[in-house]
Amino acid sequence: MASFLQIADDEKGHELDLFCVPRHYEKDLDRVIIPHGLIMDRTERLARDIIQDMGGHHIVALCVLKGGYKFFADLLDYIKALNQNSDTSVPLTVDFIRVKSYCNDKSTNNVKVIGGDELSNLSGKNVLIVEDIVETGRTMQTLLSLLNECNPKMIKVVSLLVKRTPRSSGYRPDYIGFEVPDAFLVGYALDYNEYFRDLSHICILNDQAKEKYKV
């Protein structure tokens, strides 16, 4: 079972005025729940775990856009540093896919995969899927089903966040950064209708902001 850092349901988080938060978001957030520095430290450890498990193989890192791009970039920087500063290294190539399953703050049963026509080149490859958050798990299960049709040699999934929710299908990634409460989180490229991707910390969105940015 994957190890992770658990953020408790009663975690109070941190006051916004203790951190650098863009002024245009100050009234939209309840609190900082995972500071940027903690994200980076945990990401560094995930990179080490991944290299230990998959380091004997050429890895194709598949970024799930858009929310996963920041975690993807930072994770690959740490993997690159390990490649440059150890006696053994692993070839690493990248690819991208976009998956959409949200309308406002609700995860829908309608999972849209964009870029799937290019996945046939993953046949026989060792694939690392890099995701920002797993909530119900159905989106990832849909993506895994699609990828398995391409006959990769191996598929591993790393997700920065896994949400504790009664809506979960029971799916768990191979590598997990943080297990988080059932709240709507934004920041570090996690968005609400495309807003808040430019926020460095992971924060809890307040109810007023959900109405303010609703489409």
UniProtKB/TrEMBL annotation:
Predominant location category = cytoplasm
The annotated pathway is: Purine metabolism; IMP biosynthesis via salvage pathway; IMP from hypoxanthine: step 1/1
- Per the UniProt record, one Pfam family is Pribosyltran
> Which cofactors are required for activity?
Mg(2+)
Domain Phosphoribosyltransferase: from-to ranges: 38-192
What does it catalyze? Answer: GMP + diphosphate = guanine + 5-phospho-alpha-D-ribose 1-diphosphate; IMP + diphosphate = hypoxanthine + 5-phospho-alpha-D-ribose 1-diphosphate
Q: Source organism's superkingdom? A: Eukaryota
Gene Ontology annotations of biological process type: GMP salvage; guanine salvage; hypoxanthine metabolic process; IMP salvage; purine ribonucleoside salvage
| Localization per record | Cytoplasm
In the UniProt record, which is one GO cellular component term? cytosol
The protein's job, in short, is: Converts guanine to guanosine monophosphate, and hypoxanthine to inosine monophosphate. Transfers the 5-phosphoribosyl group from 5-phosphoribosylpyrophosphate onto the purine. Plays a central role in the generation of purine nucleotides through the purine salvage pathway.
User: Subunit notes for this chain?
Assistant: Homotetramer.
> Can you name this protein?
Hypoxanthine phosphoribosyltransferase
- Protein source organism: Salarias fasciatus (Jewelled blenny)
Biological classification of the source: Eukaryota, Metazoa, Chordata, Craniata, Vertebrata
